[in-house]
Structures are given as C-alpha cells and as structure tokens.
Amino acid sequence: QIGQYDGAVRWWFNLKDQIEAALDLMNTAAPKMMWRTYWSAHQRFFREMCICVKIEEVVQQAKKYLENHDHAIIIGLQSTGEAGMEVALEELAESLVERKGSKMCRNVSGKVDFEEMTLSGLVSTSASILTNFVRNHFPVALPPPEVPKVPEIPPNGFSSELERLEHMRLSDLAERIKNEPPPEPIPELVERQSALLESIQDLDLPPNPLDNIIDKLGGVDNVAEMTG
After folding, report:
1. What is the DSSP letter of 156?
2. Which residues neighbour 90 within 8 Å (Cβ) at sequence distance 6 or greater?
C-alpha cells in the first residue's frame, strides 16, 4: 500500500510539471478552471485511495465475525465509486473496440453493452480518475478565445444609440468566436498526453472498493449490495 501511494504521489507531481511545461511551450496562462479541476481530481483520487486501503482490514474483520460469531455484517462506504466505474467501463470498452476493430461491446443503440465485455480482473476507478483528467484537461492546444458575455436587451429598449451599437458589436463578436474552428492540437503536446496515459498503466492502483469487497467476501451470492 505504501508503494501504491508513493507511486501515485510521484505521478501527480509529474502531471503538474507536465501541465506547467505545456503552458510554457504555448506561452499562455492556464485556463480559468485548469488548476481548480486539477486539485478537484487530485482530491477525489486520494479519497478513493484512502477508502481502498481500508478494504483488506474490513474484509478480515468481517470474515472473523462471520466465522466466530455468526453475525450479519453491514459495511458503509463513503463512496461506492459507481459513477467512476461507469466511466472506467466506457473507457475500457472504447479501448477494446479500437484494439479489436469491432463493435462487439456496443448494443444496437450504439451504447456500451457492459454485459458483453469480458474483463481480466477488477476495474480500478482510481485509474479512471487519472485517465479522465488527462484526456479531457491536459492542454494539447491553445485555449480558444473567450466568448464575451452579451447583455440582454433592456425591456424598454436601448437608452442610446451608443448602447445599441455596443450590444451589436458584442453579439457579432460572440457569434464569430463560436463559429471559429477549435485551435489545432500541437503534436508534441499530444505525444506528452499519450505518454501520461500510458504511464497510468504502470501504476499499481487498487480496484473499485465496492467490487473488491464483494469479490473478497465470496461474490454476489454472499453479499447483498444496497446502493443508490
């Protein structure tokens, strides 16, 4: 567990360095929500890790009471990781489809059919947090221009011609920015993003805590899961 934690800490430090290097390469400041999103993902990740490291002890105590005292055990989780699990399965299905060049993991509506997936082991929702952040928030292109806020037209009309012209200017500018194509990704930053995604596979991360508990206690026949 210490090794898992230390490896994760090094990964997050490296990610921060890589983001700062990417921003320096583009000679631009971080987008408004960049660091807020980074620290939010950081907090979710280590909260998940804190839950995961308790699973082994919880399972040992549960088995002891089941064997020696014939008790029914109730385990409460701060987070089941259910939302993260859906994202993780979506990502896994996408990778399977890309690797196998088929649509075996999708149903007729085009959505992922989790029942058709064959997994080699339990899925890590901790890893999903990392993957999701890198894919969606690591900067690979210059941020698009900020769309100006266009005030609503006053109920009684504009108070002056100058106010009307300013409203038209802002409206035209906002529409023009919205219709512009997004900035092209920078190949070097795309490579760095891919390297970060690959480095997640090298981390020794725990599986989803809820699935891990169920698995260690003998499967769904022995555990009644109540979530929602």
Report:
1. T
2. 112
pTM assigned to the model:
0.73
Q: Cβ(171)–Cβ(150) under 8 Å?
A: yes
Span 76-123, pLDDT tens digits:
887 766 666 666 666 665 555 555 554 555 555 555 555 555 555 678
**214, 47 contact by CB (below 8 A):** no
Say if residues 138 and 196 touch (Cβ distance below 8 Å).
Answer: yes
- pLDDT (tens digit per residue) in 31-88: 878 999 999 999 999 999 988 888 899 899 988 888 877 778 888 887 766 666 666 6
- Nearest CA-CA partner of 218 in 76, 66, 94, 102: 66
Interior angle at CA 216, CA 58 and CA 120, nearest 5: 135
Fill in the amino acid letter for 86: E
Amino acid in position 181: P
Decide: 154 and 186 in contact? Cβ < 8 Å. no
Q: For residues 227 and 25, what is the distance between their CA atoms, to the nearest angstrom?
A: 46
Token pair, residue 38, equals 């980074």
Short-list 123, 129, 138, 135, CA closest to 14:
138
**In sequence order, what are the beta bridge partners of 106?**
112
Tell me the two tokens of residue 89.
């399965």
Burial 11-23 (b: 16+ CB within 10 A, else e): bbeebeebbeebb
